[in-house]
Amino acid sequence: MRATLRWAHSDLRTHRGEALFLVLATAGIVASLLLATALFGYATNPWQRVFTQVRGAHVTLHTTASADAGRLAGLDGVESVAGPYPTAALTLASQGGRASVELRGVPGKPEVGRPLITSGRWLDPATPDGVVLESRLARALLTAPGDTLTVPGTARRLTVVGVADSAEPRYRPGERSGLVWALPSAVPDPAGQVVGLRLTDPGDTGYAVQRAVTELGAGAIGEVATWQQARAEAQGDNRLLGQVLGLFGLGALLAAGFAVHGAIGTRIRGHLRDISVLKAIGFTPGQVVRVFLIQHLLYALLGALAAAVLTEALGGAVPGRLGDAVDVWQGLPGHTVALFTVPVGAVLFIGATTGLAAWRAGRVPPVPVPRPATAPAGRLTGVARRALGARVPPALVLGWHKAFTRRPRSLGAVGRLALPLLLIVVALSAWTTIDRFHGSPERMGLPTALSVRADSSLGDGGALALLERDPQVAAAYPGVEVAALVPGQTATIALRGLGTHREPYPFTLAEGRAAHGPDEAVAGQGLLDLLHVRVGDWVRMTVGDQPQILHIVGRSIEPENAGRVISTSLDTLRANDPELRPAHYQLRLEPGAEPAAVAERLAAAGRGHLDVHTVTNPADGLSPLRAVVLGLIVVLALIGLIELLTLIGGTVREGERDLLALKAIGLSPRQITAVTVTATAGTALAAVLLATALGLPLAHWLIDAQGRSSGVGAGIAQGPSPVLLLLLGTAAVLGAAALAALPAARAARRRLADTLSAVA
Amino acid sequence: MSESTTPVLRAEGLVKTHHGEGAPAHAVRGVDLRVARGEFVAITGPSGAGKSTLLHLLGGLQRPDAGSVWLDGERTDGYGEARWAVERRKRIGIVFQFFNLVSDLSVADNVELPALLAGVPPKKARAGRKELLAELGLEGKGRSMPGELSGGEQQRVALARALVNHPPLLLADEPAGSLDSRGTREVMRLLSRFHQRGQTILLVTHDARLASAADRVISFFDGRIADDAALDAGPPPRRAGASGVLELKD
């Protein structure tokens, strides 16, 4: 043991750089895996916690005011019921802004879907105009208990007495109204009712919805929200972040595993002599394997430990969502287990790859013999001969020959170097795609920047005229959005009428064509998946008691509502219901217009009758991802660098054997250096080409798969610009050449005795 | 057999064929050998005769295709690589022509490593190392790295490393092969000195001058023992020619 330690200690002293790299790489990988775990935990767990604590309703049904929703309590599989409670739609205003809300009249604190008071207190008959706001809504309105809210257009005032968490789908400005609890007396003329069903078997949700609809009749049903929808919404971007981080963490782990394996392999080739001597003086093969294995396991352990400590101690201080996620994650039950398993798993993986290389070290014969000719090195190809004849610099020809003739090893080197580069290409694609959401949102399904709700006092024509009068508004598309029951009546989807036949809404189509004719519509991927239909199919849905039959002629990119959206023109919906009035206007702005500025101007022009929101960009939530992607690119570049150094070390060492021969045939030291540099650059070039060729389709596939699973739909993937790729490739090849130049030049100038020492 | 008559090393019917590229090379074909305690045996022969392979077989660095080796009367047929490694720690010291020292380790570490491997306490290992290096004229070189030493110095360190555990048997494979005449003289003087203290030595060399220092010279040719002659005990006869130049003094 002492002898082993002595050798390990000396080895560490002479190879500090390698040791440092292994520690840093492991730390980087483990940290990114831990952060991914934290984001996963963060994404799923707060909602789950709230849902459990509030005894959330699995199904929330909005019905007409006259429906006898109380009957649902008797349905099979319904464990308990919240409500029915009367509801009314309102717009509330505070200093922080305006929001459309659903005012829900509750006599006491509901047993199912019981709001979790986070500040203030619950409703009290002593303050009849008191309300409790759902926490996201309260945050959007910048209100706290004690504030007063106004209802624009009326003299009515409401006092906020509390703020509470709820497990129902969250408030999204301009899309989903926020939840406000009030005493029933505060909802004098309810527009509808809401009833929450808690089921004995949550897996039965679809069936429960179906029975509820049958019980009350399709005409009585408004919107149906299920717990799955609410959870998917709550997880949203965080899950994507977690997946991206996890994917890259695993990719980096794999790349680092290869890098470690390659580094140790090359080290062993360089140490053959020493290993032989060690064996000759009495090291057993087992001891040799153990020395290498323990050494590298220790480095990996050190790195993993550092990463775990850093993530645990400083992770919460990272600004933005990543920090929040770490904070929340630290309070979750699985935290300790993950904090332990992730580093241990990474160390074991690195240990396994090290074991393979160490095993080879154990098999080195104890006699310091000349190595068998490394491989059937291959003759100069005909092309190479002709190139030499044609006065192509011999260094180039020999370098090329050196890089690509020893098949298995050169392929291995190219592959190992290509892996981090490939991941970088994927990371750049993710970056470009996120960038595209901001740079040209119209190509990502967000052609309009503002969404406006108008008071009934303005009238349709008036509102439209007012909006289009603004110089920076390119077009205003009137629209409505209603909840429609899908066939089978197991869920509701958003049916949108947007634009008119005369002025169609500019949908971003990924498949099929735009909807022109009557009854034609385009749908998001989420809807196609939900209904198991394809572009070209006809679908029948129910709006109120009216059936609506639409022909899906295209698939649009739908970043909202998990893609469960079907859109047609307003005219198509009017054919069914001539009374239909536009509920909102989507505004397309002139290029270069600042949405916030236009919104302010329009709100002022509307004199309180217009409610203007900027359309939420799903990529806003992904901004922290950019920092993460950047960090990953750095880690991957580090891994690539090490692969490169390993490669250069190997090439230079092998070159030593030929040094005298090359000098003897009359190559200058500079030419001999050029041979090595060319070989390294050639390998790097091959790796870059391979990485680009594989990375681009892989990135497209991954991003599209992600888009499909989130309902947005395939077709959002964007490859990095050719310039960026060219830059990456040039940097890799030139960097490889530059890195190789110094050691190669030193090796070429070394005075070598004609001994066997260069052989082993 | 009594302790005194048991040979330190015995080999019977050793055969080793190398299968490299091209035709198989019969390096050792049927060698029987006995080395008694305290003997200094030189194996000479032209290069390519299979001398080194024979030495490797005797030190357990390579395994014979046929035949057996006895160490102190103990048959080693069943030894695996690991067992041989353990034997080499205490019972066999080896010096090669090249590659004797671990390049990453200092001179001191190179010498102490076998002692530590054999389970000697670090303090004792250090003391043994200091004593040996002093004896070999290498005081103050303990901290040097092998690359900083001359060839002769490196071979002396190698000798110290081979002898630090006081093994009953020293195998030396062309220990002076890469040295100049001064280095060669130094190494030979040291070998003779250790031999006079009772060290059993098996030396492989193609150099007749070196061989003349031994008690017994075995001529090796084409993988077989061609001649096995004991030189006179007493002072070596004065001869004309190359061997006459070499006067060995302690």
From TrEMBL, chain B:
Q: Does the keyword Lyase apply?
A: no
Q: Which GO terms describe its molecular function?
A: ATP binding; ATP hydrolysis activity; transmembrane transporter activity
Cross-referenced InterPro entries: AAA+_ATPase, ABC_transporter-like_ATP-bd, ABC_transporter-like_CS, ABC_transpr_LolD-like, MacB-like_ATP-bd, P-loop_NTPase
- Stretches for region Disordered: 231-250
Instruction: Provide GO CC annotations from the record.
Output: membrane protein complex; plasma membrane
Q: Which Gene3D superfamilies match?
A: P-loop containing nucleotide triphosphate hydrolases
Identify the keywords attached in UniProt to this record, alphabetized. ATP-binding, Nucleotide-binding, Transport
Pfam families on file: ABC_tran
Which segments constitute the ABC transporter domain?
Answer: 9-247
Family that this chain belongs to? Belongs to the ABC transporter superfamily.
Protein name, entry field: ABC transporter ATP-binding protein
Q: Which organism is it from?
A: Streptomyces fungicidicus
